[in-house]
Structures are given as C-alpha cells and as structure tokens.
C-alpha cells in the first residue's frame, strides 16, 4: 500500500511517498480502506519531532480517516465489510489502509460525502468531550469557542448551535468571522480589532459566558477568566500563544470557576469509545442536515508536504484533507 513517510524529522522535515505492507487488524480492530485522511496540527508537531505518538500507536502520521471497511479483526460485531465509516486513530492515517479500534469508528451516512467525512472524527471527539464531559455545558448555557474557523471550531460551532446554545466565537479576520456566522455562531468576534472580554460582557448583560473552549492560551488564560460567568468552566485544548503566563487567580476564587485542560490522543480506546457512543446518539442523527464537515482543501496523498505547508500558514477555514489514490 502507498503511504507517507516523514524524512528528516525535525524543523526541516519532508513528507515523502513510500510503500509498505498492509497492516493486519488485531482483535477488536477493523482494517479501513482509506478514502481520505484529515490533517491535524498534531501531525505537524509530530513531523517536527515535538509530539511522539502514544506507546503502541503507528509511527505513520494521521489521526483520522474515512473509508470503507476492508477486514474485520476477531471479535468485532456490528460492522461489515464495505460499510462506509470514519474513524479516530492514534496514528497511521496517511496511508491507503489503516487499522482502527472498532469502538472508535462511526458510520458515514449517505447525506455526507465519504471523502469529506475524514474531517469529522478528531473535531467531533475533541469538541464533544471537552465541552460536554469536562465543560459540563448544560441546556440554556452560553458557550464561547475560540478559533471558530479552525478544524475543531468549524464543527463545534455547528454542533452546539444546533443543540440550541448561544455560541460565540473568535477569529482573526472578517472573512473568517463571516464564515463562523454561517456555521451558526450568534456572534463572531474579530479578535484583531475587538476585545472578546468586552463583547462577551455586553452580549450576556454583564453576566459573562458559562463555558469557554480555548486553543489559544497565553494572555487568553487571564482574559477567559475575566469573560467567564460565575461557576464558569474554561477548558484548554492547546496553548498556541504559550503555556507560560502570569495569572491573577483571585477571580477564579471569587467567581468559583473551573479551569481544565485535556488531551484526546493518549486516552484508551475504551475511553474514546464512550465519547463515540455519545456522538452516535447526540450528534450523528443531525449529520448531513444540521451539522456538516467544513473542508477547506483536499490534496492528493503524494502532496502531503504541500498540505502541511498550507496548514502551517493558518489561512484555512475548516479542515484540510489528503485524498487517497
Ligand atoms: N487537546 C486535544 O485533545 C486536542 C485535540 C485536537 C486538536 N487540538 C489542538 O487544538 C488546536 C486547534 O486544532 P485544529 O485542528 O482545529 O487546528 P487549526 O484548524 O489549525 O486551527 C487553529 C486555529 O487557531 C487559531 N489561532 C492560532 N493562533 C492564534 C492566536 N494567537 N490567537 C487566536 N487564535 C489563534 C487560528 O485562527 P485565526 O486564524 O482566526 O487566528 C486557527 O483557526 C490545535 O492547536 C490542536 O493542536 C487539541
């Protein structure tokens, strides 16, 4: 099978096509004939040597794919060869065939294009577990999602707007803000010329926002604390502006806030299965109607390096995919 290797891992890495034998699914696993793989920032970090895959995971890049089931490992029930699926992987997605734990796989309904479905798993799992499990978003509460046109943000805004929440979001340009509003954001804040703390206070009648999903960090740590409502929950999934900052924790105490941060990749297949089950029940029924993958660009597999360069420029809206030959 064709796949992508990382050459010269580090700052000046290159992604080059190669070939290897197909992987074999173990007990409880599925072999997927990959239609497309989604790109994630973690792939760029892994290629630079900054984010090693978890123990036991494939060293091949790629944490999400769509495709059809080619083989079932022993003990797998509920799936058949030929089923159209998308899957969250600990690694191995930039490849014509990939192995997934059967509990980390979701069906692709007819209303969703099979290639575009590669952009769903990482964003759906990350948004759901951080906003619902860690953030404990309750009916009627308000939500602020930073990076509303990111791969994660573009899906998260849709999911939680469709569930009836007032979703606010930030983005770095008017073009991105307009896109975020088409995803269902009640208000998209252009952070290059607006202060999201002031906008959030104004939009909530001075109360502040109940749950914040943050991928920015740096000075946003303090500003999120200021923008949060009493009993608010702030969940970080990344610290793109830095993980070291000076913070005044006094308002965390007086507003009874929860500050949390989590990663998805290192969780066990069983823990991911629980998130998968929640998505299947709560999000998948609206897939293709209320919630759609947002795809900026699709590159052929052999242009994986150009795809990484495109992602690093951060101009994209939604997901970037690699299409298999
Ligand atoms: N913890 C986890 O489990 C987990 C899981 C998946 C992803 N992540 C992380 O979550 C982040 C988002 O992932 P993704 O795939 O959605 O990435 P992505 O599509 O590349 O989006 C990154 C977004 O961050 C925004 N951004 C970057 N620097 C910023 C800054 N200084 N201030 C404000 N916004 C900034 C950019 O928006 P603008 O252009 O509008 O600034 C961009 O839309 C990544 O850092 C990724 O590593 C974490």
SSE map:
Elements: E1 2-7, E2 14-19, E3 29-38, H1 41-47, E4 64-72, E5 84-88, E6 97-101, E7 105-107, H2 121-134, E8 143-145, H3 151-162, E9 167-171, H4 174-182, E10 187-190, H5 196-203, E11 209-214, H6 220-227, E12 228-236, H7 250-254, E13 258-261, H8 269-282, E14 295-300, H9 304-312, E15 319-323
Parallel strand pairs: 8-9, 8-11, 9-10, 11-12, 12-13, 14-15
Antiparallel strand pairs: 1-2, 3-4, 3-6, 3-15, 4-5, 5-7
The protein binds NADP nicotinamide-adenine-dinucleotide phosphate.
NADP nicotinamide-adenine-dinucleotide phosphate (NAP) is lined by residues 40-42, 122, 126, 147, 149-152, 171-172, 176, 191, 215-216, 237-238, 240-241, 262-264, 311, 314.
Account of the protein in words:
The protein has 325 residues and is an alpha/beta fold. It folds into two domains: 2-120 and 266-323, Alpha-Beta Complex (Quinone Oxidoreductase, Chain A, domain 1); 124-261, NAD(P)-binding Rossmann-like Domain (Rossmann fold, 3-Layer(aba) Sandwich), CATH 3.40.50.720. It is built from nine helices and 15 strands. The chain has helices spanning 41-47, 121-134, 151-162, 174-182, 196-203, 220-227, 250-254, 269-282, 304-312; strands at residues 2-7, 14-19, 29-38, 64-72, 84-88, 97-101, 105-107, 143-145, 167-171, 187-190, 209-214, 228-236, 258-261, 295-300, 319-323. The strands form three sheets. Strands 3, 4, 5, 6, 7, 14 and 15 form a seven-stranded mixed beta sheet that branches. Strands 10-9-8-11-12-13 form a six-stranded parallel beta sheet, sandwiched between helices. Helix 2 (121-134) packs across helix 8 (269-282). The longest helix is centred in the middle third of the chain and has 14 residues, at 121-134. The chain is globular, with a radius of gyration of 19 Å. The model has no long low-confidence stretch (mean pLDDT 97). NADP nicotinamide-adenine-dinucleotide phosphate (NAP) is lined by residues 40-42, 122, 126, 147, 149-152, 171-172, 176, 191, 215-216, 237-238, 240-241, 262-264, 311, 314.
